[in-house]
Design brief:
Helix content is 25%, strand content 25%. By secondary structure, the chain is an alpha/beta fold. The longest helix is centred in the first third of the chain and has 16 residues. Helix 3 packs parallel to helix 5. The strands form 5 sheets. It has an 8-stranded mixed beta sheet, with helices on both faces. It is built from 8 helices and 17 strands. A hairpin with a 4-residue loop joins strand 2 and strand 3.
């Protein structure tokens, strides 16, 4: 459905979609750049980003939050990265793995850069997948207004673990994180976590919190003054990865006293 046709319906999202797009487009380019960098820094600092093995990202267009630094950091850490390929006739999308530096082709009415839809490179999400969800507007219940095609809503509903946890992350500027509730239908989804330049916004209680997202411990050997591994004294020492309280949910593990 075209935007002009949509305007003739009684869809309550239409005016808010239009206002959100105008507000985002009116933001100074320097502000959008600074806010995008801040959002990217917050996402790559999340425990769920550090411990995931695959990032489902998106290709930013126009005034959207630029998440390309997240893609670059994912490749630097050896993670797999996938981008969506959209079918504008069926309003469906699939994610396909990309290589670092791969050339993308612009597709659809918005000219969104997409990878080649090679069936051998199509990925489906698993417990180690982090999905970044763009949107024109989010509210404090995690509800979202996109561009009106409902592709992300359909995709997320195919994989219910995204609905029960916080591995589907909304991405937006704080000015577009609304206190006014967004109209909601049975076809829409709401996300447990939205990230803006001001921080992580948990919108509801997480029903399913994967262990790898909360805390993952790995052995950290002691080192001597020259930086060489040394024998542990009486205990094994661990480095804990967790979602910190100021990010919204968990208390850090208690520090252990070291024996002299």
């Amino acid at each position: 459905m075209s935007e002009s046709a949509e305007m003739t319906t009684e869809n309550p999202k239409v005016e808010r979609r239009k206002a959100a797009r105008e507000l985002r487009d009116a933001m100074p380019a320097a502000f959008r750049l600074e806010a995008s960098l801040s959002i990217c820094q917050k996402i790559v600092a999340m425990a769920s980003f550090g411990l995931c093995d695959t990032v489902f990202c998106y290709s930013p267009v126009g005034s959207e939050v630029d998440v390309r630094p997240i893609i670059a950091e994912a490749f630097r850490r050896g993670k797999r990265v996938a981008l969506p390929v959209c079918d504008y006739e069926t309003c469906k999308m699939e994610f396909y793995e990309i290589a670092d530096g791969e050339l993308l082709c612009e597709n659809g009415p918005m000219r969104i850069p997409e990878p080649t839809p090679d069936p051998a490179r199509r990925l489906t999400p698993n417990a180690g997948t982090l999905l970044l969800v763009p949107g024109l507007l989010f509210d404090r219940r995690g509800r979202r207004i996109g561009y009106g095609k409902g592709m992300y809503d359909r995709y997320i509903r195919r994989f219910p673990d995204f609905l029960r946890g916080s591995t589907a992350v909304g991405v937006t500027y704080h000015a577009l994180f609304s206190d006014t509730p967004i109209p909601y239908t049975d076809q829409d989804v709401n996300l447990a976590l939205v990230v803006t330049e001001r921080g992580l916004q948990f919108t509801r209680k997480i029903e399913k919190s994967p262990k790898w997202e909360v805390r993952h411990r790995r052995y950290v050997p002691l080192v001597d003054k020259d930086g060489n591994p040394a024998e542990p004294r009486k205990r094994e020492f661990y480095d804990a990865h967790y979602v910190s309280p100021d990010e919204g949910k968990y208390q850090p593990p208690r520090a252990k006293d070291l024996d002299e």
